[in-house]
Specification:
By secondary structure, the protein is α/β, with parallel strands linked by helices. The chain contains 13 helices and 12 strands. Helix 7 packs across helix 8.
Length: 325
């Protein structure tokens, strides 16, 4: 059994290595001097390559850097040994440094911390310590409690906001800012037309809590990012830049859909490389200053190309050609 597992592991790494053939590497963007905008120095949410990171984290990170990305957003810390994808925190930090990559932000599971129903909260302090060790500026709560999405109430969002304020006070002492990353359900309407994200923004202190706007999800909710930038200027320090397949643009919020099981909505969602889909990033990028944007990350939750590096390179090239200044 052990030899079979080793074979599978080696085969997987071999497939990963095949992505790095000379033709691919030679086509990677050269490291010219970049501008200072968030798009010139675009990052990658590492979750986009989660399978490859599991196979060979070092090789995957090296290739991300060769493509031209300036930084990564981490995810999936293992608190048992303070590691990411099999790399201890200091190992990860060295690999990033060796490849001229930074990490300014990380996603850290705070779903129980934000939940009114759970008493076994995650340790914000542990996350802050790890973020500080990596040199990150933001600790991001990536999602609300997932156990009962269709029954989130106004009080749940108010509680989450209060919790984020408390975490923000702890983080501020370490020179770090707390943040929250949205999906689509935060845009569902309550009886008075208020939305969950509006509640969280209204009940959090701007000096303690920022927001990472996932452009895909607000668009999939049938709303415009620009409207939120105008309504809440300066509150969106981070963006997730990912695109929507042109054949899957129908919104997934509304009276008929808000009570459907999450699994029933999956078939209405499809991602694509930035610049090849439905979302007008050229226009949205014009509002970066109004939003308060500091860092942007390419992300693709599911990649359908066989060569996943080719996918993130397509997105990178589009950002550099059309959004970077």
């Amino acid at each position: 059994m052990q030899s079979r597992r080793n074979f599978i592991k080696k085969a997987g790494i071999g497939a990963l290595g095949a992505y790095l053939g000379s033709s691919f590497i030679s086509s990677c963007t050269s490291h010219n001097v970049k501008g200072d905008s968030p798009f010139s120095n675009i990052g990658l949410q590492a979750y986009s390559l989660r399978d490859l990171l599991t196979q060979d984290a070092k090789l995957t990170l090296e290739t991300i850097a060769k493509i031209g990305y300036s930084h990564i957003e981490t995810f999936g810390v293992n608190l048992a040994d303070n590691s990411f994808w099999g790399l201890k925190t200091l190992e990860l930090k060295k690999i990033l440094s060796d490849n001229n990559l930074k990490t300014y932000s990380g996603h850290y599971d705070l779903s129980k911390y934000l939940s009114r129903k759970h008493t076994d909260k995650e340790s914000v302090e542990r996350y802050i310590d790890i973020a500080q060790e990596l040199g990150q500026k933001y600790v991001i709560a990536p999602v609300t409690p997932m156990d009962d999405l269709n029954n989130l109430k106004v009080e749940d969002y108010q509680y989450a906001a209060e919790q984020l304020n408390k975490a923000g006070e702890l983080a501020k002492k370490a020179g770090i800012t707390m943040g929250y990353h949205n999906h689509f359900w935060e845009f569902r309407d309550f009886a008075n037309g208020t939305k969950g994200l509006d509640i969280m923004i209204a009940f959090t202190e701007p000096e303690l809590v920022t927001f990472e706007l996932d452009i895909f999800w607000i668009e999939k909710a049938g709303l415009s990012p620009e409207s939120y930038f105008k309504k809440y200027p300066g509150r969106f320090s981070l963006w997730h830049v990912k695109d929507m397949d042109k054949n899957y643009t129908a919104p997934i919020i509304g009276e008929k859909m808000d009570n459907l099981p999450f699994d029933s909505l999956i078939n209405t969602i499809k991602y694509t490389e930035v610049g090849t889909g439905h979302i007008d990033y050229i226009n949205i990028a014009q509002h970066a200053q109004e939003a308060g944007l500091q860092y942007a990350f390419v992300e693709q939750d599911d990649i359908y190309l066989a060569n996943k590096f080719e996918s993130i390179k397509k997105s990178y090239d589009y950002v550099q050609k059309f959004l970077a200044k």
